[in-house]
Amino acid sequence: MLAAHMDQIGLIVTHVDQRGYLRFAQVGYLFASACWGAQVKFLDGTIGTVGLDGRANPTKELPAMNHMLVTWARRDGRTSA
Question: Residue 20: what are its φ and ψ, rounded to 5°?
């Protein structure tokens, strides 16, 4: 068994779909409500936003992490969609 303490929480990209949307997993413990709408910054300085993939209805229930994705804008201004 390996046990460790992390001082930083974050996201790790697990999949990039054909439209450029990024699926992610949490690193450390994150509240889904804190992620939705948050901005993320990649190592190269690119900024992305955590959004919903359309499967969940946020007016009825809090979306789960697996219903979220990251959209991002390329340096030329075009978005991932």
Answer: 95, 0
Measure the CA–CA gap between 51 and 79, rounded to whole angstroms. 13
- CA dihedral over 53, 58, 64, 68, signed as positive or negative: positive
Looking at the whole model, is its pTM more than 0.90? Answer: no
pLDDT tens for residues 12-69? 889 998 888 999 988 878 888 888 889 988 888 888 999 998 887 888 888 888 889 9
Rounded Cα gap, residues 80 and 60, in angstroms: 27
Burial of 23 (0-12, 13-18, 19+ CB in 10 A): middle
